[in-house]
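Problem 12. The chain below contains 371 residues. Write out its predicted structure in token notation.
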Amino acid sequence: MSLSAGLAEAVSEARVDPDYLRIEKVSKRFGSTTVLSDLDLAVGRGEFVSLLGPSGCGKTTLLRIVAGMLAPERGQVAVGGRNLTRVQTHRRNIGVVFQNYALFPHLTVAENIAFGLRAQRLPAALIGERVKEALAMVRLEDFADRRILALSGGQQQRVAVARATVVKPALLLLDEPFSSLDRKLRETMQIELRHLLRDLDITSIFVTHDQDEALVMSDRIAVMNAGRIEHLDTPARVYARPNSLFVMEFVGQSTRLGGTAAGGEHGSMAIDTGQGRLRAPGSFMAGSAVVLGIRPEAIELGEGPGDAFNTVRARLRDIVFFGARTMLYFEPANPADRILVDLARLPGGLAPGATVTLRWPVAETLVFPAP
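Solution.
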């Protein structure tokens, strides 16, 4: 059986094993600092889940606990029903791709890929066959005898992935593997790795602080904050319907308006803001301090028809061109607020200093308790 066929044979099982990786009540402290606090996470077989969050939120610590490089104060980690919490790192059958790839510079590409297979004491003929398949998988067949230092960053990243996957790991962990690549190469490698891992049906946990990277690559995203998972869902739902103000602010850009709830009924409420009275889905007690959020691509220029749209007027402060899109920055009535509009095409004649009417659907208005 080929490497890719052997790794892909679990495809039919992927949908019936939603808890292939189970992390339960895991906590970790360094001195007096709590880094992880009773964290739970279940990952399905063949699923790609990103741990996304700011520096210090605990995502790399969690990855190291799963890999066996750190021991939790309490809680457990299980893969495929096997409790690995006290199992030594080299006995867990978990592949790891580090931020700096951790390749051996004195070995060739083929020797690096074969390293884990030799540690398993497989027959030489089988090692040679598996290495050949792995090289073909990452399109490095012509680089087998190259030294690592003679490779580009993208090629080294492919070697690291091949070395981690050739041993047929039960789980693959990736710790910001694209951070040292330039933007264009990073975007290319994101798509390549996503396709490769899905073809192989390898369960993968990916650590990143780059929201775009997580949105592009993941089946689900776990947004972490202060040692906890604040939101776990598909990229589309995390972006469109974040369940907290932190998640909205961390994932993507947004217009943000502070206000006070003025009551409402039938699942809709009025909010008094510096831009006037607006409406949003939801229900807060009258007088509650709240924050409204609107994704910038949901806002259009011009009046909105009827009660289905919120409408405000604001002075255009700046126009920033991003190629396929243009971002407009407006001056809000309150300094703590922020008004952004993302347009695919900029109307002719619009310039900073102009006062513009903006509209967006009430249904696209997010509302959260004020921090």
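Discussion. The longest helix spans residues 183-200. Students who got a different answer should revisit the alignment rule from Section 12.3.
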